[in-house]
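I have been asked to look over a protein record a colleague put together. The record follows directly below this note.
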Amino acid sequence: MYCDVKEVEARDDYVLAIKFADGSRKLFDMKPYLDHSVFRQLRDERLFRTVRVAFGSVAWPNDLDFDPEALYDLGLPLDE
């Protein structure tokens, strides 16, 4: 299933709170990815917090982004 990201918020401990086009809200933990490849630079919390919505997914400066399907499939439901 493919679902566009509509809103994203950086939370403490490298977690993203994400709202998708279908109205669902999920939490996605980025910590497991911070030791891999280009995502290492996101260990800088100031950079991590610059996350924004771009082209239906989440993105950071330097063309750093994350697969929206993975965000949707691996995210945990957020009940607020």
Remarks:
- The chain has two helices and seven strands.
- The first helix runs from residue 45 to 48.
- The mean pLDDT is 94.
- The domain at 5-77 is CATH 3.30.2020.10 (NE0471 N-terminal domain-like).
